DNA sequence: CGCACCCTTGATCGTTTTCAAAATGTGTGG
DNA sequence: CCACACATTTTGAAAACGATCAAGGGTGCG
């Protein structure tokens, strides 16, 4: 109740220009903060939610990174998304009332817990928030379409190049270096996401390094030749939306 | 203004239980009809919208079928979705204000043209409509995740089996036969959607027929052994949502 | 009826998977 | 700080799956 609350508010959150507050007035942001009070910290590998969990919250990533995945009927999983700060998790659970897949922290991460019913009624009163929610849904759909393009038509080489560029540009958008970043996910998750095997990913990373396109030290990546990498990807650098 | 209007209204539309009216009262449906006045008929191959077109409308499919596709930077396309009556097209255009991909009729089809700004303000007043819009967005995301699972992990055989089951169950949901239906899309589009070549699709269809799983006459498909097909697909029959 | 397009079928080629093993990295407790 | 155990990553060789190239057969529309 005191002013000493350690809870970070939307107003001073480092990802507010990527998250729900976009387009909101100071006053509206204050109203939004009633919804975003609850935070959660997760350790590496800890699940944010599991497949089948009832849908009650959305989660806004404040820091760290996540993978989300769906589980097929025969038990095998497909990583569908790597999520970075400012992005929302759980949107696909609304229609059925339960999470169709799970989400798991790839490193020490923190999220805002957003009770959806509260968010929904606030959005009903604040058109700018409504628009932002539509926008996030829509953006998500667009990104999934791009992911489909990647999986459907491209060679293994193309896919990995595209992923590296994608992640690089998303980090850049958040104010980090575009050329040097950490690939927080294990090779196996990358492979799964790209529809490949861990061995193929490993071979490709080695090859990219030999060709002087990137430098690799463990999970740390330095992009040395963005142009060449973009050509391999077959998609221009502007892989991200808006 | 007269009662003789030939325009089909939501109230008596054959897909109203799959479309925006879900959950709406009679009164709300009448208000919705002000937004859904405009219809459009398309012939086979005619585009509903093109990549880059400004976003102003959503389109609700009343009859027929569509493919939607995105176009990569180097010009090649990926079919991302086959859309059937009751489904909405254009949702992924909201965030950027322009359609990132195109949609094209696969047969003589008809759609409701929904000016989004009107729909948006009506939804602001009608919570049930708001919920239905969220639900459709969310459902769409879930379906794309399932498509990713398909493309990422499965063999060609699995993918085709899953597509057949998916389409079958979607027709069934609309009141048509689950075991006999028309594959309105050319083989090449199926192949593209599944990340395969037309030749592979053709071979697989032949093989499924030889194995007694399906019967094929041109684009007409009869499913003879749903169980076996489901096993091949690796996903249970309930491929669709909710 | 003829032409164009779509679909089928066959043979070969290439990429990616699979199987196997070694090397590197990570975390733990001594 | 080091040593050990375990997981992840890298690398190699062989096999498989689907792509590509090529030709022939249907089907529908003018």
TrEMBL record, chains A, B:
Pfam families: cNMP_binding, HTH_Crp_2
Keyword Transcription regulation listed: yes
Domain HTH crp-type residue range list: 154-227
Entry keyword set: DNA-binding, Transcription, Transcription regulation
Record-linked InterPro entries: cNMP-bd_dom, cNMP-bd_dom_sf, Env_Response_Regulators, HTH_CRP, RmlC-like_jellyroll, WH-like_DNA-bd_sf, WH_DNA-bd_sf
Gene3D superfamilies: Jelly Rolls (2.60.120.10), Winged helix-like DNA-binding domain superfamily/Winged helix DNA-binding domain (1.10.10.10)
Keyword Transmembrane helix (UniProt): no
Top-level taxonomic group: Bacteria
PROSITE patterns per record: CNMP_BINDING_3 (PS50042), HTH_CRP_2 (PS51063)
Domain Cyclic nucleotide-binding: 20-90
Protein name: Fumarate/nitrate reduction transcriptional regulator Fnr
Organism: Microbulbifer bruguierae
């Amino acid at each position: 109740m005191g002013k000493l609350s350690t809870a970070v508010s939307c107003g001073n959150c480092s990802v507010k220009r990527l998250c729900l507050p976009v387009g909101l007035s100071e006053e509206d942001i204050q109203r939004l903060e009633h919804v975003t009070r609850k935070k959660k910290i997760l350790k590496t590998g800890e699940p944010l939610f599991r497949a089948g969990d009832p849908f009650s919250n959305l989660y806004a990533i404040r820091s760290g990174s996540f993978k989300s995945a769906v589980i097929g009927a025969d038990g095998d999983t497909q990583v569908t998304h790597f999520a970075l700060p400012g992005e929302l998790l759980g949107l696909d659970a609304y229609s059925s009332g339960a999470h169709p897949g799970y989400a798991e922290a790839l490193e020490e991460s923190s999220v805002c817990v957003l009770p959806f019913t509260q968010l929904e009624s606030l959005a009903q009163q604040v058109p700018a928030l409504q628009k932002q929610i539509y926008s996030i849904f829509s953006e998500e759909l667009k990104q999934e379409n791009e992911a489909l393009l990647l999986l459907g038509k491209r060679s293994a080489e193309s896919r990995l190049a595209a992923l590296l560029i994608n992640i690089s540009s998303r980090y850049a958008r958040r104010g980090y270096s575009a050329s040097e970043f950490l690939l927080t996910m294990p090779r196996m998750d990358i492979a799964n996401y790209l529809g490949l095997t861990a061995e193929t990913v490993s071979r490709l990373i080695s090859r990219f390094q030999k060709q002087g396109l990137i430098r690799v030290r463990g999970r740390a990546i330095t992009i040395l030749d963005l142009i060449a990498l973009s050509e391999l990807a077959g998609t221009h650098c502007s892989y991200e939306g808006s």
